[in-house]
Design a protein that fits this description.
The complex is a heterodimer of chains A (71) and B (73). With 71 residues, chain A is α+β, with helices and mostly antiparallel strands. Chain A has one domain. Chain A is built from one helix and four strands, in the order ββαββ. In chain A, strands 2-1-4-3 form a four-stranded antiparallel sheet, covered by helices on one side. In chain A, β3 and β4 form a beta hairpin. The longest helix of chain A has 14 residues. The radius of gyration of chain A is 15 Å and the shape is flat. Chain B is an alpha+beta fold and 73 residues long. Chain B has one domain. Chain B has a three-stranded antiparallel sheet, covered by helices on one side. Chain B is elongated, with a radius of gyration of 16 Å. Classes of the chains: A alpha+beta (71), B alpha+beta (73). The interface between A and B is medium-sized, with 19 and 19 residues.
Chain lengths: 71, 73
């Protein structure tokens, strides 16, 4: 089923901003994810309603499962 | 005279997602909104490379979509 890698950042108002990536490489390389998140913060090219992204909050793989229900 | 004013930017990563029946790569776009209008190509390219490295599909290209409003000055 479809998996996503969610990169969660905190902005200047301490609110969460999520950037999601489809078809993540698995198993996840924590070092690579950390480096990519650091790069996104360093480059600072994204904004949010609560200002710049200033810190990493969490990163996680989210899997979506779909089951059809017989009607 | 009409002038334009940049109002929003979007980062678009174009990934190759397999091949179609005639052997050409199938391209899929992944868009990232909330890009600062004053972001530089260097910044966007660095971020695109970082994001691309976390997923499986080959990166075909990086695009930037800018929207401007036009008005009479």
């Amino acid at each position: 089923m479809a998996k996503k890698l969610e990169l969660k950042f905190l902005n200047e108002e301490n609110r969460t901003v999520t950037i999601s990536v489809d078809q993540p490489i698995e198993p996840v390389d924590a070092v690579a994810v950390n480096a990519a998140m650091d790069e996104i913060i360093t480059q600072g090219c994204f904004f949010s309603s609560g200002g710049n992204l200033i810190s990493k909050k969490e990163a996680r793989i989210v899997e979506r499962n779909v089951f059809d229900v017989q009607l | 005279m009409a002038v334009s004013n940049l109002i929003s930017s979007q980062l678009q990563l174009v990934f190759e997602d397999g091949l179609d029946d005639s052997g050409r790569p199938v391209l899929r776009n992944k868009n990232f909104n909330n890009v600062k209008t004053d972001a530089t190509p260097d910044q966007l390219h660095a971020v695109a490379t970082a994001i691309s490295g976390l997923q499986q599909r080959p990166l075909h290209g990086v695009e930037r979509n800018d929207a401007s409003e036009l008005f009479e000055s």
